[in-house]
Amino acid sequence: MSAAREPIGVIGTGYVGLVTAAGFAELGSDVVCVDIDAEKVARLNRGEIPIYEPGLAELVAKNRERLTFTTDIAPALERARLLFVAVGTPPTYSGDADLSAVNAVVGAMPASDRHALVMKSTVPVGTGANTKRLFAEQGKSGFRYVSCPEFLKEGTAVADFLAPDRVVVGDDGDWAGDAVVDLYRPLLVPDEGGNGPGQLVRTDIASAEMVKLASNAFLATKISFINEIANVCEETGADVVEVARGMGLDERIGPKFLNAGIGFGGSCFPKDVTALKQLAGNSGYHFQLLNSVIEVNELQKRRVIGKLEKHLGGLVGKRIALLGLAFKPNTDDMREASSLVLAARLQAAGADVVAHDPISGEVAKPMLRGVELAPDALSAAHGADAVVLVTEWQEFRDLDLADLRAAMRGDVLIDGRNALDGEAAVAAGLRYEGIGRTARSAAPAAAGV
């Protein structure tokens, strides 16, 4: 890519900010990354990546000469017109998004008619209008604002940035929006002047803000729906995997996000669903559907306890092994992870809990008091009365189930992601139960055999 591309600033170096910075550096832009966490900045300057994301460390190293990491906003303001904001907006106790970090960025900006904030953080609809109002009140009305929501999936974020399915730009039709589109141009479809797969959605600011919230709420709804179908399948003898396969072949539905399991987690879906529900409520509308999506998701995490009790009776003194802790594979993110709820419920029921995750063990450790962390899957399974697959890491899919059974004291395997071969589990001597599938176990031997 041409080194003459426009330089940019990125404020916040978490998942979104660091991937965005590395991605634009790969496209040829010089990027000044700003973060208030001095230790994180020091680590980045030493070449250490503070998060796990496949391909990110390699991308940062490859483009290191284009990346500057600092705690000072001044170099970003001096070198770049466009300042991408990627700070955290966690939920408050009320369910509203905490915009204190966003407002701090707004307050730190000087009066300028040559700069623009480009909002990557997920924010409520109306944040753009409020930011422009704050700029006006602070004598900074020349400062421009663009909404450009991110659609990066943890575990595939680098690929998602470099090959987006869409780029959404919400602006007031001025130079700032044009400049953002130009930055993304190489990733857009040929009709938009690029050579990539991304469709351009150029729209108003409020609509761009809503696209992100509505997208994640819909995907979360799809997950809760298939989990409800899975629960009905368990009562009727149907197999949710077959049901989802048949549903997914309908192009109006599609196969994605039809994998039944023990609920969604992570930094986006729970937060964004709650934020949209709260936004609707604050606007005078009761979003009843999203209430159900949230309730189904919370209950789904707890259904595993019922499955274990069905097979083991009481859980007091039972040793339960959890395979996987992160909310999904290929990330170390523990935010809203199902493992946290499951471990707490098991401990409350009197079980001894041991767990293994290939990546997130150290991140999870302070969140899992009293949970033993094992160095590998078979060590976690050693002496266990039951094993629960919580996160479908590839190494768990590849486990030799006979070895797993040999390591265990009991024989119960709960497949919380329908990722394992039930027939192979039964052949290995395990009592297998997935989500929305009939429980399976080896037939008892005939008398005299």
From TrEMBL:
GO molecular function, one term: NAD binding
This protein's UniProt keywords: NAD, Oxidoreductase
Broadest EC class assigned to this enzyme: oxidoreductase
Family the UniProt entry places it in: Belongs to the UDP-glucose/GDP-mannose dehydrogenase family.
Residue ranges of every copy of the UDP-glucose/GDP-mannose dehydrogenase C-terminal domain listed in the record: 321-422
Catalytic residues of the enzyme: C268 (nucleophile)
Keyword NAD in annotation: yes
Alphabetical list of NCBIfam families matching this protein: NDP-sugDHase (TIGR03026)
Chain positions recorded as substrate binding sites: F151, L152, K153, E154, K212, F257, L258, N259, A260, G261, G265, K328
Protein name: UDP-glucose 6-dehydrogenase
Organism: Patulibacter medicamentivorans
Pathway info: Nucleotide-sugar biosynthesis; UDP-alpha-D-glucuronate biosynthesis; UDP-alpha-D-glucuronate from UDP-alpha-D-glucose: step 1/1
Enzyme Commission number(s) of this protein: 1.1.1.22
